[in-house]
Design a protein that fits this description.
With about 600 residues, the protein is an alpha+beta fold. It is built from 20 helices and 19 strands.
C-alpha cells in the first residue's frame, strides 16, 4: 500500500534533530514543492503530520510529498537567509512568492567627464550613482523629464554622444545643454551635475532657496528673461518635490498589511532621500492564517533581495530580532526595524499604508466577484485563464496577430504572444483570426496549456471563424465575441455573442463591473497588438530607408548598423566618421550623409 505524504513526513522526522534549519518537500520526480525554515525542525515538521489541522493548500501539497530533505543551520537567522536563497533557486509552486520579480527602476547618474542622467533597471554597476527605487518606469520617466528641464544633463548613450557633430532635438526643446557640441563648458556642466546630485540626495530645498534668491536679484536688475528661466526651474523643482513636509534624515520604508479570507494585501512605501520615491502593492491568495507571520517575514526577505534595504524599516506588526538580523546580513550593514507605536511623520505614513492595504483588500474582493460573474456568463465553473485575441494591419501591410491572457489575479504577461501573419492573409480579418487562433491552440494543445475560454474583439462573423477552427482541432471551449454595437469602443455600447447560442445577442449593464472588466481585457489586447504592429512597421521602414541609399547594398547596410548601432546614430554621423568604416570611401560616405541631411556636399 502506497504511503500518504503525512506518513512519509512522520517517518522522516525520526531522523531529524531539534536544531534550526531549512527543509524541502519533494514530489515523486524530485521536484521541490515547498521550502520552509524552522527554529526547531522536528517541531515544525510535526505540524505536517496532522492533515486535519492544515489548510487546503498545504494539505494538497502534503498529499504529493514523497521525500523531505533538511539542512541544519547555526541559528534561525541563517535559516532565514538560506530559505530565501533556496526559494529564489527552486521557485517552489506552494511557496508564497513575489510574482512581480522584475527589477525596480532607478534614476542613474554616471561619473564620467560629462555624466549621463538616465533610467536604469538591473544589477548595479561601478562608476554610477543610483537614486530610488521608483514604483514604475512611468514615474521615473516623468521625473527624468523634469530633471532634464531643470539641470540640462544628457540622457543619450555614450556611442551616440561621442558621434554627435551638431546638437540634437533634446537641445532644441531645452532638455539638454548639448555638452557633445561644446554648447556648455565642462565647468558649468559639472556645476549642473553637482546641483542634480544635491537634489537627489536630500538637498533640494537649498537649491530652491538659491534659485529664488538668484531670480529676485535678476528681477531687481530688470533681467526679466533670465529671471523667467529660473522661475520655470523653480516650478519644475516643486513638481518633483511634491511636498514641503519636514522629513527624517534617513531612508525609511513603510510596510503594512491587511488580511481576510486567506487573502493578504501587502503595501510597501519607499521613502528615499527626502521624498516618497515609490509604492508597491502585493495581493497574495491562499495564505494560511497559522502561517501569516512566517509568510510576512519571507516576503520581506524576498523584497530586500530585489531592492537595497533602507536605514529603517517601519512595520505595522511586531517581529523578533531574527528578521532584522537577516535583512542586515543581506545589506551588509545594520538595518533597524521599527514597530508600533510611531511618532510624528512615521505615524502618518503608517496610517496611509494601513488604509491602502484595506482598500486593496476590498478591491480584491470586488475583482473576485466580477471575475466570478464573468465565469457565470461563460458557463465555466472554474475559470482560471482566458485568452483574448486581436489583429492589426495597415491597408494590408505589416499584418500582426496577438493574444494576451488574463486570470482572476490580473493579466498573465508570460503568456502574451504575437504572430506575424502571411501577406496573403493581410486584410482578411477572418482569415487572420483563424491563422492566429490555430497557431495558438495547436501549441497549447501540444503543451497541455489550453485556456479555459476565449474572448474575441469582433462580432458573429469572427465567432463563426473561430468555431470552424475549434471544430477542426476537435477542441471544446467557451468563446465570447465582443462587437462594437451602435457606437465606438469608448461608448460602452458593446454587444456580446456566446458560441453556445451565437444568434442571441447579450446586453450587459453599461456601467457594471463586468462590462468594465471585459472592456479592460479587450483594450489590453488592442494595446498589445497595436504596439506589435507599429514595431514591425517601423522596422520595415528602417530597412526600406537604407535600401534607398545609392550604392549601399546588404553588406554595407550591415556594416553601418554594426558600427553605429542605430539609424539615429547613422543620421548624426559626419562624413569623416562614415568613411572610416571598412568598405567605405569618401564618395560613399558623402552619399550616406547627403541622404540623411538632404543637401549636397562640396
Amino acid at each position: 500500500m502506497t504511503k500518504q505524504g503525512h506518513e512519509i513526513i512522520k517517518e522522516k522526522i525520526k531522523t531529524f534533530s531539534h536544531k534550526a534549519g531549512v527543509y524541502r518537500m519533494l514530489d515523486e520526480d524530485g521536484k521541490v514543492l515547498y521550502v520552509g525554515k524552522a527554529k526547531d525542525l522536528v517541531h515544525r515538521l510535526t505540524n505536517y503530520t496532522r492533515p486535519e489541522k492544515l489548510s487546503f493548500r498545504i494539505r494538497e501539497m502534503v498529499a504529493h510529498v514523497k521525500d523531505v530533505v533538511v539542512i541544519e543551520t547555526a541559528g534561525e537567522t541563517e535559516a532565514f537567509l538560506l530559505e530565501n536563497e533556496l526559494i529564489k533557486q527552486y521557485r517552489p509552486y506552494y511557496n508564497i512568492l513575489l510574482k512581480d520579480d522584475k527589477s525596480y527602476p532607478y534614476i542613474a547618474l554616471s561619473k564620467d567627464e560629462f555624466p549621463r542622467l538616465f533610467k536604469y533597471r538591473g544589477k548595479r554597476q561601478k562608476g554610477v550613482d543610483y537614486f530610488g527605487p521608483f514604483d514604475s518606469g512611468e514615474s521615473v520617466n516623468h521625473t527624468l523629464i523634469e530633471l532634464q528641464k531643470l539641470f540640462g544633463l544628457r540622457s543619450c548613450k555614450d556611442s551616440y554622444f561621442n558621434n554627435r557633430t551638431r546638437p540634437c532635438l533634446m537641445y532644441q526643446i531645452k532638455r539638454c545643454s548639448a555638452p557633445c557640441c561644446q554648447k556648455i563648458s565642462p565647468f558649468d556642466y559639472q556645476k549642473s551635475v553637482a546641483q542634480a546630485r544635491d537634489f537627489l540626495t536630500q538637498k533640494s530645498y537649498t537649491i530652491q532657496e538659491n534659485l529664488q534668491a538668484q531670480m529676485m536679484q535678476l528681477s531687481a536688475n530688470q533681467e526679466y528673461e533670465k529671471a523667467a528661466v529660473l522661475r520655470d526651474k523653480i516650478a519644475a523643482l516643486n513638481r518633483i518635490q511634491g511636498t514641503s513636509q519636514a522629513l527624517p534624515n534617513h531612508d525609511t520604508d513603510t510596510i503594512a498589511y491587511a488580511y481576510a479570507n486567506n487573502t493578504l494585501s501587502l503595501q510597501v512605501f519607499f521613502h528615499r532621500t527626502d521624498r516618497l520615491t515609490g509604492h508597491q502593492e502585493y495581493i497574495l491568495n491562499h495564505v494560511d492564517e497559522n502561517e501569516l507571520d512566517e509568510t510576512l517575514a519571507s516576503l520581506i526577505l524576498q523584497l530586500y533581495t530585489q531592492v537595497p534595504p533602507p536605514d529603517v524599516i517601519c512595520l505595522s506588526w511586531k517581529t523578533d530580532d531574527v528578521l532584522s538580523n537577516a535583512v542586515s546580513e543581506i545589506a551588509q550593514k545594520r538595518i533597524r526595524i521599527n514597530h508600533p507605536p510611531f511618532k510624528q511623520i512615521k505615524k502618518d505614513w503608517m496610517v496611509q499604508a494601513l488604509q491602502s492595504a484595506e482598500r486593496a483588500l476590498n478591491t480584491k474582493e470586488n475583482k473576485q466577484k466580477t471575475w466570478q460573474a464573468f465565469a457565470d456568463l461563460l458557463g465555466v465553473s472554474d475559470l482560471k485563464i482566458v485568452d483574448i485575441f486581436d489583429n492589426s494591419h495597415l491597408q494590408g501591410t505589416n499584418a500582426v496577430g496577438a493574444v494576451v491572457s488574463a486570470g482572476p489575479d490580473g493579466f498573465l504577461k508570460n503568456r502574451y504572444r504575437r504572430y506575424n501573419v502571411p501577406q496573403e492573409l493581410a486584410g482578411d480579418d477572418f482569415g487572420m483570426m483563424r491563422y492566429v487562433l490555430k497557431r495558438r491552440l495547436i501549441r497549447g494543445k501540444n503543451d497541455g496549456c489550453l485556456p479555459d475560454a476565449l474572448l474575441l474583439d469582433g462580432g458573429k462573423g469572427q465567432l463563426s471563424s473561430v468555431m470552424q477552427v475549434l471544430d477542426e482541432l476537435q477542441i471544446q471551449m467557451k468563446v465570447l465575441a465582443m462587437a462594437k454595437g451602435a457606437g465606438q469602443h469608448d461608448k460602452g455600447l458593446e454587444i456580446f455573442y456566446l458560441n453556445s447560442d451565437p444568434n442571441t445577442p447579450i446586453h450587459l449593464d453599461l456601467k457594471g463591473d463586468l462590462m468594465h472588466l471585459l472592456q479592460r481585457l479587450r483594450d489590453e489586447a488592442h494595446r498589445f497588438v497595436i504596439g506589435s504592429h507599429r514595431a514591425k512597421r517601423e522596422k520595415g521602414n528602417f530597412h526600406e530607408r537604407l535600401q534607398d541609399i545609392e550604392d549601399i547594398g546588404p553588406k554595407r547596410r550591415k556594416m553601418l548598423m554594426l558600427h553605429f548601432g542605430s539609424v539615429r546614430a547613422i543620421s548624426g554621423a559626419s562624413v569623416e566618421q562614415i568613411k572610416n568604416i571598412p568598405g567605405f570611401n569618401e564618395k560613399i560616405a558623402k552619399k550616406v550623409y547627403t541622404f540623411f541631411h538632404n543637401s549636397a556636399i562640396t
